[in-house]
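User: Fold this one for me? It's NADPH-dependent 7-cyano-7-deazaguanine reductase.
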Amino acid sequence: MNDRPDSLADAPLGRESAYPEQYDAGLLYPIERAINRAPLGIEEDALPFVGEDEWHAFELSWLNARGKPIVAVARFRLPASSPRLIESKSWKLYLNGFNQSRFASTERVVRVLEHDLSEAAGAPVGVEVFGVDDPVLTPRALPGESIDEQDIEIADYTPSAEHLTVGEVIVEETLHSHLLKSNCPVTGQPDWGSVMIRYRGPKLDREGLLRYLVGYRQHQDFHEHCVEHIFTDLMARARPERLLVLARYVRRGGLDISPWRATPGEWPPSPLRLARQ
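Assistant: Here's what I get for NADPH-dependent 7-cyano-7-deazaguanine reductase.
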């Protein structure tokens, strides 16, 4: 019996797959964002946030015109306003198809990636390709203050916005936690991550915030939707003037995903990568 959501009925995720040896744009498997946004009350024509899904591909390789392998790291930026996200295993299979395919130049590879990913997502996708020793890939630390050292007892591992409470003092601060964990909605595999929250508004109770974030530990959802869930809960419970939620998930299968969602006018720090990514 197939108990997958309809949007994943034919996806390669959770299935045995043959790894391609030649380029094939048809391997990309788009998923409508509206399916998971509807339960959060998010309407596609009136998004309550701006944002992007930033991906890094650490296993990108192709052959040059003479058959010599080239290896690189790619950064992709998929707009949160795109009608579709792209399922991660299909993305991995698609990139593997480059391994034995010849391209005349790196610029040509970038153009092909931009075209195919934009077609799948339904919106322009930004692509950058770096050499494996490029200093831009050097790991950095998340900005702000960690809330992980609180000595609290936790027994609830499902996300509950009831944990989110605020005081009367208006503050502007950046907080982060490395205790984020959710699970793949199809395979149940763990997805480890870190989350940063920057806001201006009534001061968040840090104990409650940590309980809330740890609540995702047994939650099954895509990375992108976890971030949107956190954003909408914080907006509803804390009502900040400004808010940015950014998650940086540990790579799996050579890909990491780092979604961010924010109130208009807010932007994340310059591209950063954590040591465990």
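One thing worth pointing out: The first strand starts at residue 30 and ends at 32.
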